[in-house]
Amino acid sequence: xxxxxxxxxxxxxxxxxxxxxxxxxxxxxxxxxxxxxxxxxxxxxxxxxxxxxxxxxxxxxxxxxxxxxxxxxxxxxxxxxxxxxxxxxxxxxxxxxxxxxxxxxxxxxxxxxxxxxxxxxxxxxxxxxxxxxxxxxxxxxxxxxxxxxxxxxxxxxxxxxxxxxxxxxxxxxxxxxxxxxxxxx
Length: 185
Prior knowledge:
By secondary structure, the chain is of the alpha/beta class. It contains five helices and ten strands. The strands form two sheets. An eight-stranded mixed sheet has the order 5-4-3-6-1-7-10-9. Helix 1 runs parallel beside helix 3.
């Protein structure tokens, strides 16, 4: 059975973007990008909400300004994607399936049918899977900045118990921490 992984870059105060919707405060240097590339290689299926997909779709045509970005772009283009949206009329990228919903039962089925890990990006989408106990692992890139307000990573209605399994500090101050979800599936 595939693991369901919820992984995001966040500010120290827990936001994936600031009050204006920007995330230009992220510290994605070569070292952090190299780690993100390794994480991307684990992903057998990426599940996005509309906003996160529209943000990530740049990787379909962007070739990167650095070797690490170019490598990530290639990884992203080779990954199968599911986009959950009621407003998009069709996918903008290859290897992408558009669905109007992906409820808890459908995600449970995906976990049994998919041979590699499933990564869900987008806090609203991930909240239902967290509440249902379907998320197995959480990965967080903590960026050393507080933005004060924005979109919080965790929008779950229930307590989520975690156990830290890995911690990777980067020289730019960003820290990646991987957690197992103790009350998950």
